[in-house]
Amino acid sequence: MLLFRRLRSSFELAVIYMENCPRKLRKVVEKGVEGKVFRATVINWLPTMYLPAVHCEYVGDMGDSETRRRIVLQSNNVQDKFPGVVESSPLPKIEDIAQEELESREDFRATRVFSIDPETARDLDDALSITKLDNDHFEVSVHIADVSHFVKPDSAVDLEARNRATSVYLVRSVIPMLPRRLCEDLCSLNPQVDRLSFSVRWRMDGEGNVRKTWFGKSVIRSCTKLSYEQAQEMIDTEPGELPQGLEVDVGNGFKLDDIVYDVQQLHGIAQNLRRRRFANGCITFHRSEMKFILDSKGNPTGLNHVLGGTPANHLVEEFMLLANSSVARFISDAFPDFATLRRHPPPNPSGLEKVAKLCEQCLQENVNYGTSKELQESMERLGTIVSEEQVRALDMLFTKPMLEAQYFCTGELPEDSWHHYGLAVPRYTHFTSPIRRYPDVLVHRLLQICIERVGHEVRDGPAKSLKSDEDVRAAVLGTSSDSIEEILKNCNQKKTAAGQAEDEEDFMYLCLYLGPKWTIFGGVVVDVTSECIVVHVSALATERQFFLARMRDEGCTAVVDPKRKSVLLSLQDPEEIPTDQKSGGGESSKARRRRKRAGKAGTKSADVVQTLCADETGKPATQLEEPLSLQIEFLSLVKVLVRSAGALQLEALLLLR
Known about the structure:
With 657 residues, the chain is an alpha+beta fold. 33% of the residues lie in helices and 24% in strands.
């Protein structure tokens, strides 16, 4: 008999009797099922059946990196391979683009355009340029890959991209939204080749105050691709000097010192844009990304934590945010009933209230959260009185009540619902990543219609509003019967699924990396209840719960103070703990029997799940001869031992000393 349960779950899902197994599946099972993964699809579940009837297929061995990849993709319904009709779709070559098309576009090929991306990026969506004008004014442009030129409504590529809605970024690979011929070649803004783009150009002063905005299709020739690390070196270099030992391939007749100058000028403006955003109430959280070091077989051998908050990251972020906000205003002014925007609803007030009470109760600090500006200011104030590790834990608590941002059509909701809470802007959209996000493709198509009907520039005075007609809908959506609301609903769902797939694979690789050996990590207590202690381990981006009932079963007294959110853990000599101890959590007779069995068997009983340990080897605290005690309260810094308890499970111990 085969008993199935879901990955990362202890609940039974289905049962298959061996006599009903197909021969091929039976052969796999007879060789042993340890470490093997099967896919069970429910085909029938009658009310009289305890468990459902399933169709079962063998996926592979958990030790194989390709099996792990398939698990993540299949469990989140992520399509990997493109249909043959998409792969064989004819696509034009850059050199075959008509001269009339090139002449109709703004020509930036003689402008110093460059991109800043992760070092390994191959799908280059965006590039930047800056030109110094008179009187401390600049012309700053963001150039975005013109995917809509190659992906036409109703084409096989368009329908497949609409279904996928987003690219999925896994540990070892990318599942692209578009065929690789497009996302890594024709559309990608690769250096020193002509590329079609959609540009936003601003005339602004050094403070980032925009005087004039222009939108239009363009052609560019990027002179170089910079990594974030290279751009950061340029930012850190004194003006007029060159970074020591920095090697960058710069083409189109430009020099490295030209690029250094441009990056430093953009950095100065970006700092002012960022400062203004936070003054207006933008919220930010301190987050890091796990990056695994892999061997030749794809197994994790190291783990790095990458912070996304360098000035080079901020430089690109600020101009992409400005481009998205500028386009959002332009298309929603022109088509208030048909524009694709992205809204972020206010957070759950009861969730914020809970965190605010914790901070007031335990830190004697008031947290104001009436607006995003008040919440950000409160978070900044808390950051000055606690450690960096505690800041990350508080960030996690404030993140929990936040709702997900959603794509929507402006005709669906009243204008007062369009606001983006996290960015503190009244209108926002996604325009800057059409290679990897389908809503951006829709935005590009509508923006071109706006330009044709309204003009290239944002004009002073009341905006001209247009009604979307059949021609507009056909130009954006094609002849599909799907409404824009249905398409955007699918985009929201696929974006959530992509995030879950990425998180699940990260967790899977984390379990493989940690393995069966205990590793010590620092943690922060984020909650103490009458039932458990909750610890946030920022290095693993995870929370672990340590249940007091289990600790009491192991011979520990636990006295909880609910008002202070604290607990006093005390471990006496197990033989001296009274059996009738109640509120303190005396050792139960069941726990005593387990402890005695453990003493006979050696250092640890296989059938006892420990929650407390005494040292870095994971030695059970119940085997100590001397008493121990530990006072734990909200935001206490603690140590936990963590190891893998399987391919998709972690086991954690709370270190008592």
